[in-house]
Specification:
Bound molecules: 2-acetamido-2-deoxy-beta-D-glucopyranose
Keywords: Signal
Number of strands: 22
Strand order of the largest sheet: 10-9-12-17-14-15
Radius of gyration: 24 Å
Number of helices: 4
Helix content: 10-25%
InterPro entries: Cu-oxidase-like_N (IPR011707), Cu-oxidase_2nd (IPR001117), Cu-oxidase_fam (IPR045087), Cupredoxin (IPR008972), CuRO_1_AAO-like (IPR034273)
CATH topology of the largest domain: Immunoglobulin-like
CATH class of the largest domain: Mainly Beta
Structural class: mainly beta
Largest sheet: 6 strands, mixed
CATH superfamily of the largest domain: Cupredoxins -  blue copper proteins
GO molecular function, one term: oxidoreductase activity
Family: Belongs to the multicopper oxidase family.
Number of domains: 2
């Protein structure tokens, strides 16, 4: 731009405009990245237990596609509801800051009418970790529509463990062959849910395979996407180092098995340091008289033997075991979180407690329907989860 012969006012104006233009460019380039998703929700045939049943598919997939993101990314998720009834997705563990209407639970977000679409605009602001999404209406969760959400740390933020060779998501959960509408009717008629028929790992009763290379360390993110059962997760011949629970880096403790309650997500590191063969990955029900088991396969690339030996057992009805494990999990206060500052720098321990709130869950009959409550407070949303 030539400013030699223009009057000073015009020169000033032009330079002001180019500064604005520059600021604008700077602003655009500094904006957090966007990730776009276009999802179509349909009913479709699935065969997780070998027999045909009706499932909820996202872009034809069961479970739904994984959302891969990095701290502060903007997620734009256009959801087309092709079900003949309203549909709604919720983002388990994702904080909706000043954005609660994107949370996707009935009463906060309007359901997507049949044949219509809605675009969720989320930002995973100041978050890291392992989460999942699920349908929050009409017991749809019992038919699918769930998937994993990963939020990676930004490249310059230190992560308190070496970069894993690969990063897997495993969605584990109890499963019913009974159609979700029938299951909903069971609750609506005042009864409790029956026992599930099976446990699934990534939509399969048995056979989900993870490929490992000898000597390398992998991250496995395990989320319980089921309806009611706590599951114990373990891997034959291997221990697991817990590193993250729903967005918080933990003190790195090694476990031989981990209880994952409904709705929880855990990240563990597993090293392929055993003899080159295939090993069972196991998820089994806890606190049930009849233990249901699902297996997957941890396959070494140089494996010389398929899975063999007894499927390793885990705890079954022991409640104390689970409580003790939960109590053993601690935040690593000196590790970074979404920002480089240590997770302990907020000094939670120094905040004076002015009020203590105890939360207690209970089950009750309301108008002859089976309902669940927290502190005797019945929430419409809670009954739908
Ligand atoms: C999956 O494997 C377990 C353990 O062998 C078995 O108990 C269960 O019946 C199998 N499930 C199906 C659906 O085949
Ligand atoms: C519905 O999807 C179309 C494109 O497929 C998009 O242009 C429109 O903004 C979406 N509407 C809503 C409400 O998200
Ligand atoms: C906690 O995180 C710090 C920082 O990365 C690390 O040096 C330390 O080993 C971790 N401590 C435990 C007990 O995991
Ligand atoms: C907590 O209370 C103590 C004693 O009254 C006071 O000295 C301290 O500043 C308080 N801490 C905070 C974070 O308010």
């Amino acid at each position: 731009m030539k400013l030699i012969n223009e009057p000073p006012q015009l020169r000033a104006l032009l330079s002001f405009c180019s500064t604005l233009l520059l600021l604008n460019l700077v602003h655009v380039s500094a904006e957090d990245p966007y990730r776009f998703f276009d999802w179509t929700i349909t009913y479709g045939d699935i065969y997780p237990l070998g027999v045909k049943q009706q499932g909820i598919l996202i872009n034809g997939q069961f479970p739904g596609p994984e959302i891969y993101s990095v701290t502060n990314d903007n997620l734009v998720i256009n959801v087309h509801n092709h079900l003949p009834e309203p549909f709604l997705l919720s983002w388990n563990g994702v904080q909706q800051r000043r954005n609660s209407y994107q949370d996707g639970v009935y009463g906060t977000t309007c359901p997507i009418p049949p044949g219509k679409n809605f675009t969720y605009n989320l930002q995973v602001k100041d978050q890291i970790g392992s989460f999942f999404y699920f349908p929050s209406l009409a017991f749809h969760k019992a038919a699918g529509g769930f998937g994993a959400i990963k939020i990676l740390s930004r490249p310059r933020i230190p992560v308190p463990f070496p970069e894993p060779a690969a990063d897997f998501s495993l969605l584990i959960g109890d499963w019913y062959q009974i159609n979700h509408k029938k299951l909903k009717a069971v609750l609506d008629h005042g009864h409790r849910l029956p026992s599930p028929q099976a446990v699934l790992i990534n939509g399969r009763a048995n056979g989900t395979t993870l490929a490992f290379e000898q000597g390398k360390t992998y991250r496995i993110r395990v989320s319980n996407v089921g309806l009611q059962n706590t599951l114990n997760f373990r891997i034959q011949g291997h221990t697991m180092k817990l590193v993250e629970v729903e967005g918080t880096h933990t003190v790195q403790t090694t476990y031989s098995s981990i209880d994952v309650h409904v709705g929880q997500s855990y990240s563990v590191l597993v090293t392929a340091d055993q003899a080159p063969k295939d090993y069972y990955i196991v998820a089994s029900t806890r606190f049930t008289n009849r233990v249901l088991t699902s297996t997957g396969i941890l396959h070494y690339s140089n494996s010389q033997q398929s899975v063999s030996g007894p499927i390793p057992g885990g705890p079954t009805t022991q409640i104390d075991w689970s409580l003790e494990q939960a109590r053993s999990i601690r935040t690593n206060l000196t590790a970074s979180g979404p920002r480089p500052n240590p997770q302990g720098s907020y000094h939670y321990g120094l905040i004076n407690i002015s009020r203590t709130i105890k939360l207690e869950s209970s089950a009750a009959q309301v108008n002859n329907k089976q309902r669940y409550a927290i502190n005797s407070f019945l929430s419409h949303q809670l009954t739908l989860l």
